[in-house]
């Protein structure tokens, strides 16, 4: 297989550009497996957005890279450009380490594949795009890619960082520190920890800012972040509790995260192969562990993007190391795509795990944003024992009251708590049938009597911290929410912030 593909690629490379299969308006386009430079990356995404304009939209994050390359993102969904009630949002981010380039090509290839499969009427892709809003950022660090590529792509570190020599996967606010300090003080708070951030010890890079704003302004439910240099799916936490260099760091969603990592690893022909040799002779091989690892058990990382997603937003993120070779030859890319395609697809379907629903005011029927959705695991273990365990990581409903809570199968008590309302609990059984939407449970919350009187007197609207500057029914499209101002506003007064 590998040799056949290599020959195909050599042939492609040898042909003049005009005879290579060039997309035309009428015929279906081909995707060329090669290392696309930053202009070609933009071109591929533009072509996909044009060819699939009914389900695709190209946009750039709000800041370009240090060297002014836009962070192009392709959105794919049946109604591109808007968040739809109850439709969960997903993202793939690749190439944040500029010299780890395979994920960049895989995500570009995926964009092309989703578009072609949609056009061909593939029922799985049609269903996925109609029930999921997918965002693809093939390169978070185009400047690092440029440096790695200009210098031959063989150096283990050259091009890893951005153009200010900052490793973007150490550049996010260290919310693990806040979370562990909450734990030590027996404070239950374990979500949306940007609210607790009182200062930053450094100015984040533009690429990091852009992604932070994106994370906080989009209701992502699930994501993955593609790297290279090993072959393993790595899940939170990335930072150890004690500060040890290597130590398993359980998160409240450990079971769900392990499942998510296993979905990817088990669909990849080599990641979970127990007989696979290590990437570097003598090194550890994750094959016998099923191709998955807890982040901190491998090596502790502070300021990483994976834990930032989990601790700042409703998103669950896994880090995928998609190959031993950080900069593999172009001739290997098509086989790599075939090896990763099913894993990439099946992982996106996981956006539909668990339970979702709408939280509403029982009197007016209006959606309630910022409701805390708390889950307790009450799964029966055996004849005598029922699990009775709070999962200490709440998610929040977004601006029309919709929420998503990824969960592995089990029995759960789900409680919705919103300011000014009586809390409400539903008991659910999660089974996660494959390729189906999540179980639906809505919450119709009864207003607290005295609170509604208070509201009448003051004319105040209920609602939580983040969105309550918008009157009911006048909330802007979540995508356009000027959250950066909100975020920057909160950060502006802090030490060492030159904003
Ligand atoms: C920044 O980019 C320029 C142009 O690609 C390159 O010459 C320079 O080495 C880069 N600097 C760093 C620190 O990456
Ligand atoms: C709930 O408990 C069951 C039984 O112990 C377990 O299999 C499952 O993973 C738990 N769910 C979560 C989300 O932790
Ligand atoms: C049921 O599970 C509990 C908790 O894991 C264990 O302590 C107990 O021994 C089990 N009982 C039986 C009958 O298997
Ligand atoms: Zn990396």
Keywords:
disordered N terminus, alpha/beta, Aminopeptidase, 16 strands, 8-stranded mixed β-sheet, 4-stranded mixed β-sheet, metalloprotease, binds zinc ion, 13 helices
Approximate helicity band: 25-40%
Mean pLDDT: 88
* Overall number of structural domains: 2
CATH class of the largest domain: Alpha Beta
Shape: globular
Residue windows where pLDDT falls under 50 for at least 5 positions: 1-27, 456-485, 488-499
Ligands bound to this protein structure = 2-acetamido-2-deoxy-beta-D-glucopyranose, zinc ion
> Structural class, from secondary structure content?
alpha/beta
- Roughly what fraction of the amino acids lie in strands? 15-25%
The CATH homology group name of the largest domain: Zn peptidases
Rounded radius of gyration (Å): 23 Å
SSE ordering = HHEEEHHEHHHEEHEHHEHEEEEEEEEHH
H/I helix tally: 13
Major β-sheet profile: 8 strands, mixed
Q: Can you characterise this structure?
A:
- The chain has about 500 residues and is α/β, with parallel strands linked by helices.
- The protein has two domains: about 350 residues, Zn peptidases (Aminopeptidase, 3-Layer(aba) Sandwich); about 100 residues, Carboxypeptidase-like, regulatory domain (Immunoglobulin-like, Sandwich).
- Helix content is about 30%, strand content about 20%.
- It contains 13 helices and 16 strands.
- The strands form three sheets. It has an eight-stranded mixed β-sheet, with helices on both faces.
- A hairpin with a 6-residue loop joins strand 13 and strand 14.
- It is globular.
- The N and C termini lie far apart (about 55 Å).
- The N terminus and C terminus are likely disordered.
- It binds 2-acetamido-2-deoxy-beta-D-glucopyranose (NAG) (3 copies) and zinc ion.
- Zinc ion (ZN) binds next to loops.
- The site of one 2-acetamido-2-deoxy-beta-D-glucopyranose has 10 residues, from helix 8.
